[in-house]
Amino acid sequence: MLSDQIKTKCSLPHSLYRAQQIKDFEGEAAELAGTTLYGLMKRAGEACYQVFKTRFPDVKHVLVLSGKGNNGGDGYVFAAIAKDAGLSVQLCQMGDPADLTGDAAQARNAWRIEQGVIDGIEQADFETADVIVDALLGTGLSGTVRAEYQRLIYKINQTKKPVLSIDIPSGLNSDTGAISDVAVKADATISFVGLKQGLFTGRAAENCGQIYFSGLGITEQFTSICPSNVLRVTYQDMRYCLTQRSRTSHKGFFGKTLLLGGNIGMPGAVRLAAEAALRTGSGLVKV
Fold first, then answer.
1. Is the pLDDT confidence value at 4 over 80?
2. What is the pTM of this model?
3. Is CATH 3.40.50.10260 what the domain over 7-235 is classified as, yes or no?
């Protein structure tokens, strides 16, 4: 079992990281915690399955789409756990499964030991699947999405089936939240080791769905060797800084804001700014 509880919403960590930081330090953190990168991959698959059962408790048929890197390896581990649990699992590999290396190849071999079948992407049965697990690109994306991945991501989005993305929706930049071509629109995303900046910036809000997090049992070790210089700030963090207003106060107590802007036929920006000033507590606003 994981020593880190799955976190979501208000319990998510505040520290954010770039993908390269995770890549550079997760191996050392795993070693300090007495495990390996493959051990982390197995824990990631377990955490993904926990979220899957929480979100989709009655699902019987799941389609796992695996890419060529470690994100695909996470998909293999998840598929093996789901199959052991009695679910009907179709696993489809982008490219030749024989091309997988390292930890991903080890996860592929473990899936085969479980008598798991590896289908090609063209054999993916989107109609039968109740849920799609996106283990295609993960945080390894840089630049544009290759054509074969673009076609598959379009297909995923067109099916309107629920999607659980592993680490980050495929096609979304893990550092910026930008989309260069197309990205999976997930219902839920589970991220590991450290939350990626791109889950909270750019176009992330319309693609990630509900965000879950697992430190995979190495949170203490990872944060001790890889400090974050980006923090996620929420209303809950700041609301204690807001002083209670007196019930007998009036607009003259809370300052005045003057906005200069707009032109003939172009009043929108200054109007929006004025409304924002009022909503954030200015006592009197003049445009």
1. no
2. 0.85
3. yes
